[in-house]
Amino acid sequence: MAYALIHALSQVLAPGCLPVFTSDGLNLYFYAITAHFRQWSTDMATGKTRWQVACDLLYGQVKKTCRCRRLYLVGRLMRLGELAQLTQRLKVLGYFGTLNTAFVERLNLTLRHALAALSRRSWATIQLADELHTHLEWWRAYYHFRRPHLSLRLQLDVPQQRRGKQTPRRYTSRTPAMAAGLTDHIWSVEELLAFPVGQ
Predict the structure, then answer these.
(1) pLDDT, tens digit, for every residue of 14-37?
(2) Which of 124, 130, 179, 123 is nearest to 150 (CA)?
(3) H helix runs in the chain, sequence order
(4) What CA–CA distances, in Å, run from 66 to 30, 69, 73, 76, 111?
(5) Domain residues of the chain, as ranges?
(6) Distances from the Cα of 58 to the Cαs of 15, 61, 84, 192, in angstroms?
(7) pTM
(8) Phi and psi dihedrals of 111, rounded to 5?
(9) Is the distance from CB of 107 to CB of 147 less than 8 angstroms?
(10) Which of 3, 68, 84, 118 is deepest in the core (most CB within 10 A)?
């Protein structure tokens, strides 16, 4: 699965793009990343050609240690490159520069809350992978087109008055699809279900 994930990522990257990688302590990611982001190089001394990992590849791992089902220690390990280089690249991308897996952990928690089949200690198990894939695709469409995100809202220049004693509306809600410019409104469930597949 780690190899399939990195392979799928490598297929959609722009030519020459070398991303910054961070992950948990699973060593299979290291093998998958080094297998995909390599290049042929010639040794000047011997003249032999070898398959070498890209020199600019940056990859750091966050290793968590638990005791009695509680987080005890968080260690950070650079598998490829230097920590200073990784910190600088993360800051250029707009992050704090700390090696962590907070964003993917947030996504995992969101998925577990949204799909009962992925919740731990749940009776809502799925027997077939196709069923899980169908549920996941429905959730993705709902998440991007139907559900407004608080972090994406825009502040209005002039607050809009509402009926009764309600406080004036100061923000306009947006979904990720609206923020990306794919649509100009929040879709209804009926609109989402009626949209032709493949368009």
Answers:
(1) 888 888 899 988 899 999 999 888
(2) 179
(3) 2-12, 27-36, 83-92, 102-114, 129-141, 176-179, 189-194
(4) 22, 6, 7, 15, 23
(5) 2-42+52-100
(6) 17, 10, 10, 40
(7) 0.66
(8) -65, -40
(9) no
(10) 118
